[in-house]
């Protein structure tokens, strides 16, 4: 690190070279001194439904839990990592199942264990510092964190908005986004073969 600037509890670190997503995340998490930290992307917008206190409530009620994830634009992004036993000589298969989940949390039927969530989550600082992020990974930040070492739950009732400039597809409510993806309008410049990630 060549320098840092501290203004109103915000620290900005400048490095000599680009670290990559995960090495930068390790640097950020290494500076956290609180019990929990909230992870959000820089283009997320807090709304009246962004109930961080509800995330804390779940974390306090289930001390074995390491991460509570929310929903973005009303959409849930979570997955499970499953192991399928193979034959004795073949080995097994580890695979990721989108929208895969395990059992619900006691006392929180809307929350259930999963293997990973989107980049809107509250995490136990010590757990994430213990596991860390693989600094060799440069581009697949949402899904390649070693989530399988943590206890994670998506919390669909806790929301954040994803900012996009007005007039773009992501600025629309989730139901309108679905309509745009399934019935693109060539008059808006969206060819029928266009596919949009949510």
Taking the alpha carbons of the first and last residues, their distance comes to 35 Å
- Any idea what the shape is? globular
Q: What structural category do the secondary elements indicate? A: alpha+beta
Number of strands: 12
Helix content: 10-25%
Q: How do the helices and strands follow one another from N- to C-terminus?
A: EEHEEHEEEEEEEHEH
Protein name: Beta-1,4 N-acetylgalactosaminyltransferase 2-like protein
Pfam families: Glycos_transf_2
Region (Disordered): 174-198
GO molecular function: acetylgalactosaminyltransferase activity
Characterization of the model:
The chain is of the alpha+beta class. The chain has a domain at 34-163. Helix content is 18%, strand content 30%. The chain has four helices and twelve strands. It has a five-stranded mixed β-sheet with strand order 3-11-5-12-4. Strands 7-6-10 form a three-stranded antiparallel β-sheet, with no helix packed on it. A hairpin with an 8-residue loop joins β6 and β7. The longest helix is centred in the first third of the chain and has 10 residues, at 21-30. The chain is globular. It comes from Lates japonicus (Japanese lates).
Identify the notable features of this structure and list them briefly:
198 residues, 5-stranded mixed sheet, 3-stranded antiparallel sheet, 18% helix, globular, disordered C terminus, acetylgalactosaminyltransferase activity, Beta-1,4 N-acetylgalactosaminyltransferase 2-like protein, Nucleotide-diphossugar_trans, Glyco_trans_2-like
Brief write-up:
This is Beta-1,4 N-acetylgalactosaminyltransferase 2-like protein. The protein has 198 residues and is of the alpha+beta class.
